[in-house]
Design goal:
With 287 residues, this protein is of the alpha+beta class. The protein has helices at 9-43, 69-74, 230-236, 246-263; strands spanning 65-66, 93-97, 102-103, 108-110, 113-117, 128-130, 135-141, 149-155, 164-171, 173-174, 181-182, 187-190, 202-208, 211-212, 219-220, 227-228. The protein has 2 domains: 62-236, Glucose Permease (Domain IIA) (Distorted Sandwich), CATH 2.70.70.10; 246-283, no CATH class. The radius of gyration is 31 Å and the shape is elongated.
Length: 287
C-alpha cells in the first residue's frame, strides 16, 4: 500500500499546544524585559533614589540626611553663643581634649571639645547641659552606642549666610524633642558617659552644615571636614549678658492671642486666665 503516512490527531494537538506555549513564553519574557527597563528608569528618578528606612545601613549615618525645607524655614536667629555647661562664661569647666588635638588611637584630630567639670573623673555625671544658643532641635536620639545620647541644634547667625549646628554628645539624659525651638540657656539634657564607655564629659561640636550631623565621626585624619572651633564661634558671636527673651515674648504673644479671642466672647464662657496682662507683644521686633 503506497502513499504518505497520516499524522494522528493527538500529534496535531501536541504541536498546537507547543506553539501556544512558545508564544506565551515569548510574551512573558518581553514583558519582563519591559518591566526591568521601567524599573531602571524609575531608579534614576530623584523621587525614588532614597532607600526605605528598613534598607538603610546600621548604624544610622546622620550626615547623609538633609534638613527638610520645613526645618530650614524654622531655624531661628541666634542672639549669640555661650558655653553649654558650667557658667555662661565657661567657668567650673575645663577642656579635656581641645578642638584639633591629635589622638591617633581614636583615628585623627578631634573635631570638637571635651568639656569636663573641674572635679574630673565622673564628678560631673548628671550635671545640666544647656543650649549654647537659640536653636531648633534637628536631632534628639542615640545614633550609635559610642556616641550615646545626642542632641543637635540648628541656628542662624546674625548677618551671616547658612546654618550653624551645635552638637551635644555622650549625654546621660535628653530633655528636648525633635522639632522644638529652644532658647539660649534652655536645659537640654545632662552630662553623661555614653553608657559607661568614657569618663563623664560633654563632647561639644560646632558644625557648618545643612545635614543632620549626628553620628558622623568625632575625629578626622586631616582635622578639617565642616567642623568649626566652638571656642572661636563663641568668641566671634558672644551672647549678651541678659537672658534670651525668646520664651518670654512667645508667652506674651500667646496671651495676646488669647485676649484677642476673649474680647469677642462673653467673659462667662471664656475667662481670662489669671496673670494675663493686656500687652501687644506683636509690636516687638524679635530675631
Amino acid at each position: 500500500m503506497s502513499g504518505k503516512a497520516r499524522i494522528s490527531p493527538l500529534r496535531w494537538v501536541f504541536f498546537i499546544l507547543l506553539g501556544v506555549g512558545l508564544v506565551v513564553l515569548c510574551c512573558y519574557l518581553a514583558a519582563g524585559r519591559g518591566a526591568a527597563a521601567a524599573a531602571r528608569a524609575e531608579g534614576q528618578s530623584i523621587y525614588s533614589a532614597d532607600a526605605p528606612l528598613s534598607g538603610t545601613p546600621e548604624p544610622f549615618i546622620g550626615g547623609m540626611v538633609l534638613l527638610t525645607p520645613e526645618q530650614m524655614a524654622r531655624v531661628p536667629m541666634a542672639d549669640g553663643f555661650e558655653w553649654p555647661c558650667g557658667t555662661p562664661e565657661g567657668a567650673m569647666m575645663y577642656d579635656a581634649q581641645p578642638f584639633g588635638a591629635d589622638n591617633a588611637k581614636r583615628g585623627g584630630k578631634h573635631t570638637g571639645q571635651d568639656l569636663n567639670g573641674i572635679g574630673g573623673e565622673n564628678t560631673d555625671l548628671g550635671e545640666p547641659v544647656y543650649a549654647a544658643a537659640r536653636g531648633l532641635v534637628v536631632f534628639s536620639g542615640k545614633p550609635s552606642e559610642d556616641w550615646g545620647n545626642v542632641v543637635v541644634l540648628a541656628h542662624r547667625l546674625p548677618g551671616e549666610e547658612g546654618i550653624i549646628q551645635t552638637l551635644y554628645a555622650h549625654l546621660d539624659t535628653r530633655e528636648v524633642s525633635l522639632g522644638t525651638v529652644v532658647h539660649r540657656g534652655r536645659r537640654i539634657g545632662t552630662m553623661g558617659n555614653a553608657g559607661g564607655r568614657y569618663l563623664a564629659h560633654l563632647h561639644f561640636e560646632a558644625i557648618q552644615s545643612r545635614c543632620t550631623e549626628a553620628g558622623m565621626p568625632g575625629y578626622h585624619p586631616g582635622g578639617g571636614m565642616n567642623r568649626l572651633n566652638p571656642a572661636e564661634l563663641i568668641a566671634a558671636f558672644p551672647a549678651p549678658k541678659h537672658a534670651d527673651a525668646y520664651d518670654t515674648v512667645r508667652h506674651l504673644r500667646i496671651r495676646e492671642a488669647y485676649l484677642s479671642r476673649s474680647q469677642s466672647t462673653p467673659p462667662t464662657t471664656t475667662p481670662v486666665p489669671e496673670g494675663a496682662i493686656p500687652v501687644k507683644p506683636s509690636q516687638f521686633i524679635t530675631p
